Amino acid sequence: MDVLTAEQRSKCMSRIRGKDTKPEIQLRKCLWSMGLRYRIANKLPGKPDIIFVSAKVAVFVDGCFWHSCPLHSTKPSTNKDFWITKLAKNKRRDKLVNKQLQKLGWTVMRFWEHEVKNDVQKVGNRIFRTVMKSLTSSSVG
Fold this sequence. Notes:
The chain is mainly α. It has a single domain (16-140), classed as VSR Endonuclease (Endonuclease, Chain A, 3-Layer(aba) Sandwich). The chain is built from 5 helices and 3 strands. A 3-stranded mixed β-sheet has the order 1-2-3, with helices on both faces. A hairpin with a 4-residue loop joins strand 1 (50-52) and strand 2. Helix 2 crosses helix 5. The chain is elongated and about 60 Å long.
């Protein structure tokens, strides 16, 4: 049984950000300080959080709850059937989006929000190396 009314629950859920989350902003600041320039507005499948157009690298920062992180995912105690279905759909959609982007020639990088929060520099370095590798391999050919 939910301890909140339907209206209270709706208000709580509506305040959950789908973009410009703290981990995303933290990562963008890190990448900017490394000299990487990126875009955030895009029409690619799955709407990646950060893209590097010339390198064709798409970055997602996945929320631990919404994308079922193996370390931090929790199973809701109320409305279980709805949430189990919803979270399973999210995971299936993530896999489909990865395939769609790869088919279009994009390198897909996904990070859990806890990875960004715990060590943004490490995540930034991985992205930096991937972008640089992609740029040098595309200019060599």
